[in-house]
Specification:
Strand content: 25-35%
Largest sheet: 5 strands, mixed
Number of strands: 29
Number of helices: 12
Shape: globular
Length: 550
């Protein structure tokens, strides 16, 4: 009996030890290109929008769909390079996104101009077929009582605009429940008006389903994160469930929509520390987040996850990037830093990267993930050292222009001899800021060029190169403006501050002292920025300007 008891004890210990999860040691991975294919685009397809490409299988062929000019979808067989089909979307609406499921199911979404009109006559979310015919226009059937019971305001939810990727799984289409225009994340107003974690359209029931959980996990009152860039990324997990990632968190969230439960997976980069919140609420992230996480994708071919991460060029001199690799159970396997190729698309047999070779050719590289024998710790140390060196170089570079009280003035006076005590500087961050904002200010200078050239008024164009700046200024005939200074290495962009807002900037110096230095939101251009460009507020013909002293 004693021997039997000992044997039973040993067997039980063996079972326990076998059940214990074996530690997975991280490794160094490489991405190898096994072959490449070039697709020559039709002349009419060369205005395609690369980020909206989609890989599908149609009638046994591997097909790449490209969105051309936000008005047409073109289909190319990537093995033969031949164009097989094209369909046009509704030209009366600004196209937003699409998702191909099969020839009978191509989902498209359009931007919404008037919310009230859209709710009365829905048209933004539609189903098309391979012939380009509209099959169904989806409405906004939703249980409003359910929304209220969960504590959500319907105004914050509908109508939705599609995710960048418009994920679809098990006949359910996923939509975001917030707008990038939201700038109050972390405020008391935001906390008192919760936004649901997820919104899903059930194609079988043709109604919306809302999660009971609130959006922006880990954000509490006083914890602010910017929202001007993508904050929430959505995809489909290897379990065919919605998968969400936030740019400020290392965790990944899998939504079990049947039970409305959220499963949290930890997937932290060894190269990124805690992503700190901003000091105050802001939309703008250009100069505020040193690094952040991006989209996570599941590779069906290799049964791996690739989680993107980025290092802001404002802090590192140029954009740095990488991917974290995890297995199908979200176990960390390693990460790849600054590889030329990115795993973009996969099916059960293929993994490849798609990118424009030039304006008329798309290149497809077929990829292979390789586990190398290189020492993991040494590799991670080398990546950290590279990032630290780049950051130190930029910090030293910035220090040269930050010794005084104002970086714009320091930059200008380092490049131009200024004898006047009073002068004004208008800084443009070329190809940055809100759409149309720079146009309005450029036009103001062009229309009143004589006045500005006769005064102590300077234009500084901050760009990545002199040619980029001159191309921009030439659009407004300002390339030979009298007092023009080109910042050809984007120094001032890196030093911009102001929570990342990169609209035109006005700096006013009086008696050699900076009395105003501000970057305005678009709504404040007409009443604040443009008047400050003049010694006295301008009086436009046919208008009466009333100045109210505060």
């Amino acid at each position: 009996m004693k021997n039997i008891a000992i044997i039973c004890l040993l067997l039980s210990l063996c079972v326990v030890s076998c059940k214990k999860t074996q530690e997975i040691k991280p490794a160094v991975y490489d991405i190898e290109v096994t072959s490449s294919v070039d697709i020559v685009l039709d002349e009419n397809d060369r205005a395609y929008i690369h980020p909206f490409a989609q890989f599908v299988e149609i009638d046994g062929a591997n097909v790449l769909i490209i969105n051309v000019g936000n008005g047409k979808l073109s289909f190319y067989d990537i093995d033969t390079g031949l164009k097989t089909n094209e369909i046009y979307t509704d030209s009366t609406k600004p196209f937003h996104n699409y998702r191909f499921i099969n020839k009978d199911s191509i989902f498209v979404s359009y931007y919404i101009g008037n919310r009230d009109e859209e709710l009365q006559n829905p048209s933004s979310f539609q189903l098309m077929n391979y012939e380009g015919e509209t099959v169904t226009v989806f409405g906004y059937d939703i249980d409003t009582a359910d929304v209220t019971n969960k504590g959500f305001n319907l105004d914050y939810i509908l109508p939705p605009s599609a995710f960048f990727t418009m994920p679809i799984c098990e006949n359910k289409v996923l939509f975001p429940t917030y707008s990038i225009k939201v700038g109050n994340v972390g405020t008391s107003e935001f906390m008192e008006n919760p936004i649901p974690f997820a919104l899903m359209y059930d194609l079988d029931k043709q109604e919306y389903v809302i999660s009971k959980h609130r959006n922006f996990p880990y954000v509490t009152e006083g914890v602010y994160y910017p929202t001007s860039k993508s904050v929430i990324y959505a995809s489909v997990s290897g379990n065919n469930k919605p998968l969400y990632r936030y740019n400020y968190s290392s965790n990944v969230f899998e939504w079990d929509f049947e039970n409305d439960e959220i499963i949290t997976h930890s997937l932290k980069s060894r190269l990124i520390d805690t992503i700190m919140p901003t000091e105050k609420p802001t939309r703008y992230s250009e100069n505020t987040l040193e690094y952040y996480y991006g989209l996570i994708q599941y590779d069906k071919c290799n049964k791996l996850y690739y989680a993107q991460m980025y290092f802001n060029d404002i802090f590192y001199g140029s954009p740095q990037h990488g991917i974290i690799i995890a297995d199908k159970n979200f176990n960390y396997l390693g990460e790849i830093y600054n590889n030329v190729h990115w795993p973009c698309f996969s099916n059960n047999n293929l993994l490849f990267d798609v990118y424009p070779k030039n304006d008329s050719v798309i290149t497809i590289d077929y990829l292979k993930i390789i586990k190398t024998k290189r020492d993991y710790n040494q590799y991670i140390d080398s990546c950290r050292n590279d990032l630290q060196a780049k950051k130190k170089a930029i910090d030293d570079y910035k220090a040269r222009f930050s010794a005084g009280n104002n970086t714009v003035v320091n930059f200008l006076t380092a490049n131009v001899k200024i004898d006047a005590d009073d002068y004004k500087i208008l800084t443009f961050y070329v190809n940055e800021g809100c759409l149309g904002c720079s146009d309005a200010v450029y036009d103001e200078i062009r229309n009143n060029r004589g006045f500005f050239e006769e005064t102590q008024f300077y234009i500084v164009a901050s760009a990545s190169s002199k040619s980029e700046a001159m191309a921009e200024l030439s659009k407004y005939d300002l390339q030979d403006f009298k007092n023009l200074v080109i910042d050809s290495t984007n120094v001032l962009k890196r030093l911009a501050g102001t929570n990342g807002l990169l609209n035109p900037r006005i700096t006013v110096v009086k008696d050699k002292m900076v009395v105003l230095d501000s970057i305005y939101s678009a709504r404040d251009f007409e009443k604040e920025l443009i008047p400050n460009m003049y010694d006295a507020p301008p009086v436009f013909s046919g208008e009466v300007v009333v100045i109210i002293e505060q």
